[in-house]
Design brief:
four-stranded antiparallel β-sheet, 0% helix, mainly beta
């Protein structure tokens, strides 16, 4: 019953930045970002707990990506800096009862937003 809508994706060049947004129509707790490239399995990117004081990141994005949330706006953000072609994927936001990086723990998913990074 929680609906999530991602936005902010686009076509950029290596080294550029993007900020993704995910707005929820219902109550959310922990939230995360995953991504899926063509022919690849969906992989964890970043997650944040309800209060916003605890975050986790995949090793591949540490130091480049930052997850944040505004509970007033029911929105979670993913600030992506120093983008690389390897970041090209559809990015999905999702909700979970607890902070973690396990895909199966996330129970509500958005439709995704495309991020393409050219070289």
């Amino acid at each position: 019953q929680v609906r999530l809508v991602e936005s902010g994706g686009g076509l950029v060049q290596t080294g550029d930045s993007l900020r993704l947004s995910c707005t929820a129509s219902g109550l959310t707790y922990a939230m995360g970002w995953f991504r899926q490239a063509p022919g690849k399995e969906r992989e964890f990117v970043a997650a944040i707990n309800w209060s916003g004081d605890s975050t986790i990141y995949a090793d591949s994005v540490k130091g480049r990506f930052t997850i944040a949330r505004s509970n007033i706006k029911n929105t979670v953000y993913l600030q992506m800096n120093s983008l690389k072609p390897g970041d090209t994927a559809i990015y999905y936001c999702a909700t979970a009862p607890r902070l973690g990086n396990i895909l199966n723990e996330y129970t509500n998913w958005g439709q995704g937003t495309q991020v393409t990074v050219s070289s």
